[in-house]
Fold this sequence. Notes:
alpha/beta, eight-stranded parallel beta barrel, four-stranded antiparallel beta sheet, 22 helices, 19 strands, globular
Amino acid sequence: MAQRILKIRDLTLRDGQQSLFATRLSQAEIDKLLPYYENAGFYIMEVWGGAVPDSVMRYLDESPWNRLRTISKAMKGKSLLSALSRGRNLFGYVPYPDSVLEGFYKEAIANGLNVMRIFDALNDIDNVRESIRLINQLGGIADGAVCYTVDPKNEKPTEKPGFFAKLFGKKAQEPEKIFTDEYFVSKAVEMERLGAKIITLKDMAGLVNPLRAASIISKLKASLKVPVDFHTHCTPGYGLASSLMAILNGVDILDTNIWWFAGGSAAPAIELIYIFCQKLGIEVEANMEAVGEIRTHLLEARHSLKAFDLNPLPKEFDPLNDKLPAEIEAQFDKAIEAAKSGNEEALLAACHAIENYFGFPKPNEIVKNAEVPGGMYSNMVAQLKTLHAEDLLEDAMRLIPMVRRDAGLVPLVTPTSQIVGSQAVAVALDRKKGKPDYSNPSNQFISLVKGEYGHTPVPVDPAFREKITGSPVEKPYDVSSYKKPQNPSIDEFGGVNMASNHEEELLLELLPTVANTFLRKRRAEEYEAIKASQPKAEVKEEAPEDNEPITGPTLIAAMPGRIIAVEVKPGQKVHKGDLLYVYEAMKMENDVTAENDATIKRVFIKPEQQVGQDQVLIEFE
């Protein structure tokens, strides 16, 4: 009988660095690693998508297209290259029409992409249907990802029932279970029917415990003809144990990271998976000697990310040459025995002992108990820190189940995790200020509740929808209302267009706010280069700054953020409800409207400007 083979999708260059180091791995560091990756023999390398297109422009001032091209050229077709796409949302936070999807997928495949892992934050099949069709049509491999989530925990009663209530009262009715094994399998079967060539169980928060992994993976294998992939994270402490369970239950492809970019909020280390597979007689389809070379140079890459590194380094380990202590070797055997017998407690204890020995982060109990993705938790911490309201973290975390239920019991994965998390913070602030809940819904939360992101797992209460959107009627995304962002000419740089080619136009279309800043810098560099080659012109004196003291009523910034658009100018009369400006905070867009009829005296902001909390933005007469 032929030896069973486990294929590997390496996440190191995308999800690994995104989970552990806020997607700050530069192209220069990646370039050092690529010669060693060429011969690593990974079935798939995830190198793009997710937060990469946004982050490399936003934080590294680099081109996402150049990143994909460079990796593709270096790999010479030896591993399939994959990206993560949010279905109709692609890499952004709003739904896009089919024409945008086609243009982006076509450009991505032309630049070297092979596999597009397509998921929808609501598990709405309608939102992935066209992406699956287009990827197959354009010559790529459509990978349909089903997002794992759990039913929210029951809210605890504020008062304990008395003796007679316990004796004669009715038992509290258990809410209907929505996210059953059958729910996930049905979504997977539908994706396969639509043409998905791989099906992934995408456990973005690491909440699939080992017994649930065994149950779902075995049912997926029984129900599907295409390969099954398992993607998880180690944040709550289940990742390594659940990956072992997935292997034992027949998973075809496993997502892993290489040692220095593994564990904690990332996926398990391939080195630990390799040891398990050696003991099980399963071949890991990867060149572990080449993986060792990558691991050596990956340590240098991790050192370059020390400003974003929140975890201690694990011990160095080479599974091909280092001998394990007898007590740790025994833990691997105990884990396998416990997994085979379905003893979850013993399995987790053994896997935690292994991870503890090597120095990987301990399970995050806060994230585990809150049942949210680690990135969502860290975003909320950062948002509250920016607002100097860290004391509200516990309140905001407690509000997540309420906000999630109100919004239709959405799975918590980008972008819904950010939308729900930011809204929970906003509600916590509302309560602190004595305001009603949802006094400040973000534009994205309004769109989610309205129905523009798709059908939620549970219908939104019409009364709540009316409270948030002004209408009780669900309104899906209207493709005909989509307006392609303008490609404006920039007068100060000689009248050139913001985007100079098709791929830049796509960036402007998908990530307009971030791409605007990124492309403006490119045009500025080109303009300065032209100026430097020409005789110096006479420099005109700039107009003096307006230092007139502020005497009229003002509008101040509620929280730090970036100005996206300014809709008013001095002397303009505005009426209550008129849009004044749009700003972005924690990747959520917010419209600010006039509270009363007024006349604008001065405007102190402009697009792309960063503003601080309580900064004066507009003065009224």
